[in-house]
């Protein structure tokens, strides 16, 4: 493998509230849809829940020590909406909950680690779900109010905001397939519509009211696989791969970066809806005013990426849902190396191609990779060579995109710092650079070998010289 040695602007690290905080009812916190979902039988593997998680609510100092060992410059985490606003509204601001984030942010800054805050990483206040959650358009104003509280209270100390993490997952898994909270079926287009509007309102609020004094960046994190045609010589497979991408990344990126949904989504969903005798398309329409309000609500392109699929056509007849509309079957090449997650194959080449696609499709935006990583399942081998392989090869492809393709890649963030609550998979799928020993009540964070390797890469801001021991850094020619 020819490695690219140019430097990344910075290499950073991440994290999210429900997956690590625990303390699900501490200090006045309200319940979220994930608290409820995880306490519903058969929803989460091994009946795991987030009641304790990694106990990060009580381990600020320990977590910061671990981050210092990694030498990261930034730490991405999310705020639990119902910890700050227990019923989801500003009728009651829970100062104790807010205080946790103040202490975390202050601790990070004292350690010279910049905080990056995600406002919403999937744990909607349960009270808001009772009136429909993301299906009820009033959630847009609720989200704006919540964002207002965080900007006004934390904004003087935080320079990097992410409104929503992976709206695709919220809409499609939460409100489409029903495999994630709140477990609703086939309402993904409505949920997505409100997610996009909520993002836009939070961006405008920051832009109009806070940017002048706080001078930070705010945008959204969109996730996407890369899709290759299963047979590159078949036009129908090429078309299927393009549909896969437009129905995935385009669903959210197109309205925010270009205005409105991708043409291909609009036309296919309308045609199939009318053919089924519906009076109108199942894809809601933005008004011209809404389009101009949404278009351009980004300071950067936040990207979460893990893997690649092979696409071919999939005719589901008259089936009136996302799968039927997209009409694409996804498979994997059986030579691709797997992971602890059935959906995640090691495919570094797809990372570079996706970055180039974003550059060309969305006007060469500044790209911040906000998640990338790999899992194991079950017993953790601290000598996690496959994870080292994954990070080295994906980071290398990221650098190739930056240097050779001139993609405006600004930052790279690993997922994740430590093993945590992996949603419907519970604690069985582990993405951590640090192993969390759950059979020890202290939940110690123990470095896997990948953590040492990652720290070395960060220290070098690029790759160390393989011929010169682990800490010698190669300089670009
Ligand atoms: C990210 O989502 C999340 O932001 C993060 O919280 C998560 O821990 C990380 O990935 C690792 O999964 O079993 O069919 O329901 C990435 C998107 C969401 C893709 C969950 C796989 C499970 C598929 N992932 N999804 S399924």
UniProtKB/TrEMBL annotation:
Active site positions, chain numbering: 371
Position of the signal peptide: 1-22
Keyword field: Glycoprotein, Glycosidase, Hydrolase, Membrane, Signal, Transmembrane, Transmembrane helix
Keyword Repeat: no
The keyword Nucleotide-binding is assigned to this record: no
Short name of any one Pfam family annotated for the protein: Glyco_hydro_1
Highest taxon listed in the record's lineage: Eukaryota
InterPro entries, per database record: GH, Glyco_hydro_1, Glyco_hydro_1_AS
A GO MF term: lactase activity
One GO BP: carbohydrate metabolic process
Subunit structure: Homodimer.
Similarity-based family: Belongs to the glycosyl hydrolase 1 family.
The name this protein goes by in its record: Lactase-phlorizin hydrolase-like
């Amino acid at each position: 493998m020819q490695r690219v040695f140019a430097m990344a602007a910075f290499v950073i690290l991440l994290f999210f509230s429900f997956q690590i905080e625990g303390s699900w009812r501490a200090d006045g916190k309200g319940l979220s849809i994930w608290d409820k979902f995880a306490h519903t039988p058969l929803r989460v593997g091994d009946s795991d829940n987030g009641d304790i998680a990694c106990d990060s609510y009580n381990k600020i100092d320990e977590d910061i020590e671990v981050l210092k060992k990694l030498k990261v410059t930034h730490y991405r985490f999310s705020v639990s909406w119902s910890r700050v606003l227990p019923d989801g509204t500003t009728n009651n601001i829970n100062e104790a909950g807010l205080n946790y984030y103040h202490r975390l942010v202050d601790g990070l800054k004292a350690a010279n680690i910049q905080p990056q805050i995600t406002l919403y990483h999937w744990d909607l206040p349960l009270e808001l779900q009772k009136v429909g959650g993301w299906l009820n358009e009033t959630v847009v104003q609720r989200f704006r109010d919540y964002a207002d509280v965080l900007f006004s209270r934390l904004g003087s100390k935080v320079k990097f905001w992410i409104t929503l993490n992976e709206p695709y997952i919220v809409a499609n898994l939460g409100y489409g397939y029903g495999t994630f909270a709140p477990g609703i079926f086939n309402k993904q287009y409505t949920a997505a519509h409100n997610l996009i509007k909520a993002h836009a309102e939070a961006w405008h609020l920051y832009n109009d009211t806070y940017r002048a004094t706080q001078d930070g960046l705010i945008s959204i994190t969109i996730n996407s696989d890369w899709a290759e045609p299963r047979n590159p010589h078949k036009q129908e497979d090429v078309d299927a791969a393009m549909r896969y991408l437009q129905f995935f990344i385009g669903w959210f990126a197109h309205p925010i970066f270009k205005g409105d949904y991708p043409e291909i989504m609009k036309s296919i969903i309308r045609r199939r809806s009318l053919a089924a005798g519906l009076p109108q398309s199942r894809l809601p329409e933005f008004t011209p005013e809404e389009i101009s309000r949404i278009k351009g609500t980004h300071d950067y392109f936040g990207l979460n990426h893990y893997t690649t699929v092979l696409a071919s056509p999939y005719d589901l007849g008259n089936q009136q849902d996302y799968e039927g509309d997209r009409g694409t079957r996804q498979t994997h090449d059986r030579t691709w190396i797997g992971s602890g997650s059935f959906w995640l194959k090691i495919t570094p080449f797809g990372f570079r191609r996706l970055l180039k696609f974003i550059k060309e499709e969305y006007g060469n935006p500044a790209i911040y990779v906000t998640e990338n990583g790999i899992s194991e399942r079950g017993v953790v081998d601290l000598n996690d060579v496959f994870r080292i392989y994954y990070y080295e090869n994906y980071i290398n492809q990221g650098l190739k995109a930056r240097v050779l393709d001139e993609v405006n890649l600004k930052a790279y963030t690993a997922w994740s710092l430590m093993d945590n609550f992996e949603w419907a998979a519970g604690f069985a799928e582990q993405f951590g650079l640090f192993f969390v020993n759950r059979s020890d009540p202290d939940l110690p964070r123990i470095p896997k070998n990948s953590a040492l390797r990652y720290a070395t890469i960060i220290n070098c801001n690029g790759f160390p010289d393989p011929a010169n021991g682990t800490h010698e850094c190669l300089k670009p020619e």
